Amino acid sequence: MTPSILYLATLVGAIGLFLIMRPHRRTTRVVGTIIGAAAIAFLMVQILQALADDAVVPILEIVFGLGAIVGGVRMVTHPRPVFAAIYFVLVVVSSAGIFLLLGAEFMAFSLVIVYAGAILITYLFVIMLAQEATGTAGEALYDRLPREPIAALIVGFVLLASIGDALLVVDGGIKPDPAATPAKALTHRWSVLAGMPKELDAVVAGINPDATLVRSEDMPTIKVDPAGAARVDVLIDDKPATLELPESALPTNSQVVGWALVAEFPVSLEVAGVILLMAMFGAVVLARRQIDLSEDERRVAAGLPPLLEDEDSEFAGGDR
Amino acid sequence: MNLAMPSLLAQIPTEMSPGTLQVVMLTSAVLFAVGMIGFLTRRNMILMFLCTELMFQAAAIAMIAFGRMHLDPQGQVFVIFILTVAAAEAALALGLVVLLYRRKPTLDAEAWSELKEC
Known about the structure:
By secondary structure, chain A is an alpha+beta fold. Chain A is about 70% helix and about 5% strand.
């Protein structure tokens, strides 16, 4: 892909998004949707054309990617906040589909559970809370009119052009790491099983109940040959032998992710826990300060002097 | 062109095709740019934070794609931390929005523009 094609498509997409943002004009919205869809489709076709003739066409990736982009654009432009939040669910579900296609099953399902199930429901709850109190039918003015759309679109255009340049233009586009061979990944996966002694014992006992693992320095070793077969050293009736592990004993995606999380990044895991704890403290502090204020206001309403406000203002006026 | 579908939920790691990687990275880049545009153009405070969630989503897709590209689970581990930060941000942001909403019953971010310097 040449840079000029990328910039042109990005510019056309930005114009399409600008037209979609026009409030309450159905025809311009339709025209903008067509222009934006054409720009995205043009970029996808450019990517596919650069591939080798026998390359697998990533149909499902394209479908889910387009779903995510449509959801994102509708979320950004929809005048009603509840619908915007629901379109974000479309983005989450589409990206969970992309995660599944990329072999990240655990993250796909936890994304649906945590994002669509918990975070989005909190957002919807707050949106409905705020709307219910306003009590107005239809959408508010500040939801209909975009703020500085041209400046924002220029920022987005420059951002997308530069990211796209780095991803799709330089060196003929981003390519998978040639050093990451399946054999290397397979060795890593089997080493995860070797790190789980009880699991490995169960696998060995499932193949041959008489076999016991040979452990050197408490760690069983799994040898992977270039063809991909994995073998362990065992003792059968006190005689050394080797046992080939079946493919079904390969650790699943959630086991691999859990192993990476606990064995390779234990400190990060602790820090993540501290971040969540601090967020909880922050939410409690925010809520508590509000109760203090309303108590103060209640004192003023009852004809009593406020507790802190006078001292504070005198101090501020005299000293600063 | 080969239209054969790869099997889902494959146990054995396989090499990634460059087309998949580029399509997914383009999706991620477009989502990030759209989220940025949304953050700048929306006036509703809740939706501004929702647009940052869209940008988190784009980053998560990029992380998974990079992990797949290197056949390494570290990309997926990073997404767990992204989810953590997103959850913390949602809790704090929504608490803040509700606090501001109680002072002035509007979600318009312009209503608080006296916090600006100029």
